[in-house]
Design goal:
The chain has two helices and no strands. With 88 residues, it is mainly α. It folds into two domains: 48 residues; 40 residues. It is flat and about 75 Å long.
C-alpha cells in the first residue's frame, strides 16, 4: 500500500492538471467566441432575401424536379460502381 500512495498522488496531480488545462482552454474559447461575435455584430450584414409567393411556389416545383434528378444521379452512380466493382 505504501508503494501505491505516491502513484495515486501523482495520478491525481496529473488528472487535476489535465482537467484544469481543458477548463482554461474552454474558458478562453468562450471569450474568443464572444469577442468575435461582438466584432461581427458591428458590421450587421442584414441582406436577407425577400421572398414573394411567386418565388416560393417556383421553389417548390424546382425542388421536386431536383429530387427526381438527384435520385437519377445517385442511381447512375450506384450502377457505375457495381459495374466497376463486381461482387466476389
Amino acid at each position: 500500500m505504501e508503494k501505491l500512495q505516491p502513484l495515486i498522488i501523482e495520478s491525481a496531480q496529473l488528472m487535476l492538471t489535465g482537467m484544469g488545462t481543458v477548463f482554461l482552454i474552454l474558458i478562453m474559447l468562450i471569450f474568443l467566441i464572444n469577442f468575435v461575435s461582438k466584432i461581427l455584430s458591428r458590421f450587421e450584414l442584414d441582406e436577407s432575401p425577400v421572398f414573394t409567393k411567386q418565388s416560393v411556389s417556383g421553389t417548390k416545383k424546382s425542388a421536386k424536379t431536383t429530387d427526381h434528378e438527384l435520385v437519377a444521379v445517385i442511381s447512375g452512380a450506384i450502377n457505375k460502381y457495381r459495374k466497376n466493382h463486381p461482387a466476389n
